[in-house]
């Protein structure tokens, strides 16, 4: 039953696993109803012991396979998005990753002018911050309504353009918070540049 | 090519009834038709399942979650995901080929009235079983193709679609199991009837029940025709028993599909 054996127990949705309480807690791939933990996906049962303390409950998870994640954008998620086109009031984006997982289908989103920067929101011009085909890191701040899609925000230091192409068609290299330089011609272009902490570390979705 | 409004294959007149179980065997017992289910039958789909209940055969495929493409009937801001069900009867699915007046005027590819109704029933039956609150602003497509219709299509489609959803790894509260029965005039019941078995019976109504077995919640209860409350109560209890009988078979099919998927290719 524990994660040590190679032949793990396979669960199907609706399978009752444990009593929800002191010893076990419902984790990913499970749901808790009427005081019991049930599996909610078809996959392998994992009982993850809590890292700190003996009396804390271990987490029950049902996992499928590593490359088979059904992530969808959610409120507060850090997402990777591609800028599709820009207007005077917002930039239309396409979300391709949520945290570390790649989406099987892209989701449309809007980066509104007032959500691009934390300071001087009313002076922001969209075309000076993002350009079509840029790859941005952003946070989901709203689910939108019937007409519009997800709302994104880059009003944080770590968020903004991480990859861009210059007018000449070459890679842009960040040189400051507001500018990027073409790797071939040396032309400076304005962007809302993301401060990526360290590319060798995995970004953590909070 | 102009086709006649209705036609019958020659086999309809020459069919012998010797191979079929006699009608008396099936009354008031839990004698169900042979049941077969397999998940993960289509390589190209994210999740799929194939089901046979007697001669009723259908295949379901699932895709998603993805961006919403259909307009939702509820006016709220998509706080929950939605299911988009499409049902298609194969042209060879019925023994009797009929073209109704409404169908004659529709464009090729448009769903018929029956397909639309069935799709709505499947959507209503599966929505409570899927954790839609975990996928806001997303849509799950369920495509259901009926290869052969010999009765009990709704129950077969519900089981098949829920297995396909589980096979696709969609978060679900529980599987959905379903079964149908026919009420004959003298309050006798025929469990899991096929159309051939009902052909010469005085049928007064039919009941289809779908439930989530672990949570013991009924998600669909469809009744047609007239029957007394007492008969209906009995019918629902009997149908529930039949649903529970299928549970280990569906579970086994899903366990097999998980094992197959996890095996390195």
From TrEMBL, chain A:
Which keywords does the record carry?
Cytoplasm, Exosome
Primary place of residence?
A: nucleus
InterPro entries reported for this sequence: Csl4 (IPR039771), EXOSC1_C (IPR019495), Exosome_cplx_N_dom (IPR025721), NA-bd_OB-fold (IPR012340)
Exosome complex component N-terminal domain: residues covered: 10-48
Query: What GO CC terms are in its UniProt record?
Result: cytoplasm; nuclear exosome (RNase complex); nucleolus
Give the UniProt record's GO annotations in the biological process aspect.
RNA processing
Q: In what residue span(s) does the Exosome complex component CSL4 C-terminal domain sit?
A: 104-143
- Tell me where on the tree of life, at the top rank, the source sits: Eukaryota
Can you say where in the cell this protein is located?
Answer: Nucleus, Nucleolus
Q: A GO molecular function for this record?
A: RNA binding
This one is known as: Exosome complex component CSL4
The protein's organism comes out as Plectus sambesii
From TrEMBL, chain B:
Please give the biological process terms from Gene Ontology that the record holds.
nuclear mRNA surveillance; poly(A)-dependent snoRNA 3'-end processing; rRNA catabolic process; rRNA processing; U4 snRNA 3'-end processing
Q: Which InterPro entries match?
A: ExoRNase_PH_dom1, ExoRNase_PH_dom2_sf, PNPase/RNase_PH_dom_sf, Ribosomal_Su5_D2-typ_SF, RNase_PH
Q: Where is the region Disordered?
A: 1-27
Compositional bias (Polar residues) spans? 8-27
GO molecular function terms listed in the Swiss-Prot or TrEMBL record: RNA binding
Task: Name any GO cellular component annotation.
Answer: nucleolus
User: From what superkingdom does this record's organism come?
Assistant: Eukaryota
> Which keywords, in A-to-Z order, does the entry hold?
Cytoplasm, Exosome, Nucleus, RNA-binding, rRNA processing
**Which Pfam family, giving just one, matches this sequence?**
RNase_PH
Where is it predominantly found? cytoplasm
- Any idea where the Exoribonuclease phosphorolytic domain is? 32-170
**Which compartments is it annotated to reside in?**
Cytoplasm; Nucleus
What family does this chain come from, according to its entry? Belongs to the RNase PH family.
Protein name, UniProt field:
Exoribonuclease phosphorolytic domain-containing protein
Species annotation: Plectus sambesii
